[in-house]
Amino acid sequence: MTRKAELASIVTASALASFGVTLVNFARDAGIDVQVGVTFLVFVIAFGGLSLAAQRWAPKATPLLLPLVVAITGLGFMTVYSLSATRAGLQRWWILIGAAMAGVVLWLLAGRGTSLLRRYRNLLLLVSVGLLLLPNLPTGWGFPLRGLEQGGSRLWVTLDVGFISIGFQPAELAKLGLVIFFAGYLADHQRALREAHRRIGPFRFPEPRQLVPLLVAWGASVVILIWQRDLGASILLFAGFVLLLYAATGTSGYLATGGLLTLVAGFAAYFAFDHVQRRVIAWLSPFEHYADEGYQIAQGVFALATGSLAGSGPGLGRPDLIPNASTDFIFAAVGEELGFAGSVVVIALYALFVSVGLGIAFRSRDTFRKLLAAGLTLTFGVQVFLIVGGVLRIVPLTGITLPFMSYGGSALVGNLILAALLLRISHEEAP
Amino acid sequence: MNGPIRRLAIGLFLAFSALLLSVTWLQVIRADDLKNDTRNPRPALLARGKERGVIITADGTVVARSVQEENSRDFRREYPEGPAFAHLVGYSSFLVGESGLEAAYSPQLRTRRDVTISDIIAAFFGADLSPKNLELTVDARIQRAASDALAEFTGAVVVLDVETGAVLASYSNPSFDPEALVGDDATGNWEELGADPTRPLNDRATRELYAPGSTFKVVVAAAAMDTGVAGPATMFADPREFQLPGSSATISNFDGRVCGDGNAVQLRRAFVRSCNTIFADLAIQVGAANIGLTAEGLGWNRRIDFPWSLPEAAFRTEELANDAAALGQSGIGERDVRATPLHMAMVAAAVANDGVAVTPYLVQRVFDADGVTVEEAEPTPIGRAMASETAAQLRELMTQVVIEGTGRRAAVPGIQVAGKTGTATGARGFSNAWFIGFAPAEAPRIAFAVLVEGNELTGEDATGGTLAAPIAARIVEAWRETNN
Fold first, then answer.
1. pTM for the full model?
2. Can B214 be counted among the known catalytic residues?
3. Does A270 reach chain B within 8 Å, measured CB to CB?
4. What is the ipTM, given to two decimal places?
5. Interatomic CA distance for residues B418 and B396, integer angstroms
6. Strand, coil or helix: what is A62?
């Protein structure tokens, strides 16, 4: 597949996104209107532009990744549009901004490549922790940048620029910075970490001092997130960290310890936090608690079941009955309107994205790039599993976004930058 | 390092496979159950405002139609005949659900123009996505006559075509206006109707079981003649009270007198005068097994295929086999004997149809927008319930009931009606009045059952002969009108 084929795929996927918008319009007694054209233009400009940026600053990058991103974003956009035309309008701006930021990342890395990231990993760690702390800024202190509490969690900052205020979840970007730091640190200390001397039971662990900086960095991030009650992000970060440690060292003791810690932390959180208890109750018996805790999950299940094989059709379902349908429960909304067929396509697209990402990691010769590609892709994959699994009742609901599909600017920008990083790595590692 | 990454990749793909399995579980395997969960508002919400097919009667009267609202693509459901067809046609409401034929034939009546992928594919291969329409077997004129004849009485009328089992009328009183349940104020109206002590939402014609009283004597007599235990001329002892064996209880006649001269009486006279003493005796002589066999031949103790689930008419053969006292009481249609008016109309129809019981049906055909028949009803007999001679003898006895017996008030000038009255234990100490029969007696075309529930309006001395028989006469007159 060449760049030309990539561009053609992007244009086709963009056309499909605007066709989806057309179908929603027909379902609402509207015809082909300005929304259809604007959607097509925004998709072509954003992703076509990103493809051109890749051609210029990472010409040997894999052409497989962007078409997948456009397809997933397009399906998500159609569903967000079906739920709220206003939100879809904002989402279009975020697609443009996200693609532009991804282009900027490609441009920044054009000269010295990803080694720049490895070199400034400590700075990125500081920035990330700083970003994580932003929502704890006071809410009413007269400064344009303010923290915001929503639904019992403190995850948002708003920036008031004159006439508009922009809401942002800094954790979505901090996540990337932390993965880069972990990959960099592990690449630098890989040999020492792998020479495990300490034995604990059947497992071998390295000298503790090798792990201290890592544990401190990770611990600080997780503590901040727990403090902010961002359950989803802390689990995601923890999982990413443990998986990356295992990838770097091959020491399965990390996986075992990580799994054990997750269980312990899970029980602790269950008894410590009301909202964790409510989530567990909703997960185990949504129909018995239909009136309160279980309502959202039950509605999600009803939506999926009503969609059954072929779905209600775009714009013809009632995903609006599910609370937070356009963010946490976007998968149920897609499943209702596009049915089992649509759900399978969505899961398959994510599986393909993960395959491409891990393929880049496999082929990488440089340790840092290998770990970075693996870390980014694994975090991405775990995130997809946690939120889709939460909607499908495989795991408790954690309240994280479905990458590229959920409504929300920060997540879209963060994930498009993630895609740009994967593109850059694949360029650097191209034969 | 590729080793651990490969293992992680496998782990991640196993996790994704779990997602696929789970999505299959929810959207394919368990989809129908979850979709139809009463707490899922989607099916009703999605059907809101959609076009549905027309429902017409055999004589071409429109009883349900969808009318497009002005300046909108939404449709409003109308029921032009109102309460007269409320229990039969039912309603299709996005707020309170569906009932009657609207529920039973919902898949045919609903439009398929939902622009779903499966619809588009089906349309591409030439499938017709427009809603289908129903033509009923019911004649609106007889149905309206039933509604008019019951007037203020609580009760039901069922009229069948004796040869095919086609339902010509099925009306339950009091009724309700189905249009009150399809608008935005449906929930309030529905709660109000549900709280009404006269229970207007209940379909007394097909969904409520009653003790059939003396109308059940038709079944007992049929079993007696079929088994050769007794014929119309068989003589019975004629006591003032019949002593139930193994019990201190007695059974007496409605007027408390003897049936004939006090010595011996023919079965013929006992039937025509509806003597309880003789029929309690007869039932015990015939035996539970034989009566049960005849009842089951008439469709009792089993499910009958109908657009909605009918309660089973009950004659508890096994329990009665060793309980002669209870059998004696059952012989006059009391104790635990139960049937709907529809089941009792089927009893009369079998007698009229030379002993062959037929399955009742409501929908003659389903037709598409061009009028082309998609599904056509095929009359399916249940089978022979009694010998042809038995049926002929019963027709003769039932004719005498109207000529000189308890059913004289069912008589219609110019047309011979035949039937059997019944007065059964009702609620709160009142008696329910029954009349089942057929007309014309010499060559029956229609069979019917009339039930009037006893209440303050009917008073305490209501009987099948005084209350139900005149209503039957009006039904027969209405049927004659439709034939001219």
1. 0.67
2. yes
3. no
4. 0.91
5. 8
6. coil
